[in-house]
Specification:
It is built from six helices and 17 strands. It has 249 residues and is an alpha+beta fold. It has three domains: 53 residues, RNA-binding S4 domain (Structural Genomics Hypothetical 15.5 Kd Protein In mrcA-pckA Intergenic Region, Chain A, Roll); 95 residues, Pseudouridine synthase I, catalytic domain, N-terminal subdomain (Alpha-Beta Plaits, 2-Layer Sandwich); 87 residues, Alpha-Beta Plaits (2-Layer Sandwich), CATH 3.30.70.1560. The strands form four sheets. Strands 7, 8, 9, 10, 13, 14, 15, 16 and 17 form a nine-stranded mixed sheet that branches. It has a four-stranded antiparallel sheet with strand order 3-2-5-6, with no helix packed on it. The chain has a two-stranded antiparallel ribbon with strand order 1-4. The two termini are 27 Å apart. GO terms for molecular function: RNA binding; rRNA pseudouridine synthase activity. This is Pseudouridine synthase. It comes from Allobacillus salarius. Its EC number is 5.4.99.-.
């Protein structure tokens, strides 16, 4: 027996938190009857419906994708732009959705799954999952400015911060007395705000020319080519879950 909201999340319909709202709103039926009690438990033999549609009992699957720039982190787009699920083979029958998001102009590691509870574990701030980005910016950044990024910058009413920051490379143009050049900076985030990395650098007066997510939790892109994907191993999935349990406060 499992809690109803957990069963809904596992089916891939939505996250556990949203599933709880669906239950409270009377949008969920168990064996033909509306259920609004969050503590309700169901078995594998029970028939669960959300908005009059019966849940399909899919086996959970997990993929890593190297998202290219110019692709939307969604399953559909109202402007008919390419989305991450367009990059998947037709042989994948499960209804997959992205775990969190990467901006349109950002490339890198993104996970796809049909497991709503797993998704919630990875994107909710309380689980403190590391998301590591490498940014190429215009100008030569100072170490003191990295400290500002770690302390937090307020932008559009939101406090944006990283947990780690380091300069990987900086290159001053020859013959220039000013600090004209480029910097390569690695940031580790737990937050997942819209355009967060770009907004943080913009607040310091820098423009992000290229941005890629290199790592998510214990997973790294490795040699996975742009636009390609691979299935996570059971061990990798267990590691991610264990890491989220370890980080939660």
């Amino acid at each position: 027996m499992e809690r109803l909201q957990k069963v809904i999340a596992k089916s891939g319909v939505t996250s556990r938190r949203k599933a709880e709202n669906y239950i409270l709103e009377g949008r969920v039926k168990v064996n033909g009857k509306i259920v609004t009690e969050l503590g309700t438990k169901v078995s594998s033999s029970d028939r669960v419906e959300v908005d009059q549609v019966e849940l399909e009992k899919e086996e959970p699957v997990y993929y890593m994708l190297h998202k290219p720039r110019g692709v939307i982190s969604a399953v559909k787009d109202d402007k008919d732009r390419k989305v991450v699920t367009d990059l998947l083979s037709d042989e994948i029958e499960e209804r997959l959705f992205p775990v969190g998001r990467l901006d349109y102009d950002t490339s890198g590691l993104i996970l796809l799954t049909n497991d709503g509870e797993f998704t919630q574990r990875l994107i909710h701030p309380k689980y403190q999952m590391d998301k590591v980005y490498v940014a190429k910016i215009n100008g030569i950044i100072e170490k003191e400015e990295l400290t500002k990024l770690k302390k937090g910058i307020v932008d559009q009413g939101e406090r944006l911060k990283c947990v780690k920051a380091r300069i990987l490379n900086s290159n001053v143009k020859k013959g220039k007395e000013s600090k004209e050049g480029k910097s390569i900076v690695e940031l580790t985030l737990h937050q997942g705000k819209n355009r967060q990395v770009r907004r943080m650098f913009e607040a310091l007066g820098y423009r992000v020319e290229k941005l890629r997510r290199e790592r998510f939790g214990n997973l790294s892109l490795g040699n996975l080519p742009t636009g390609e994907y691979r299935k996570l191993t059971p061990h990798e999935v267990k590691q991610l879950i264990a890491l989220s349990n370890q980080n939660v406060k």
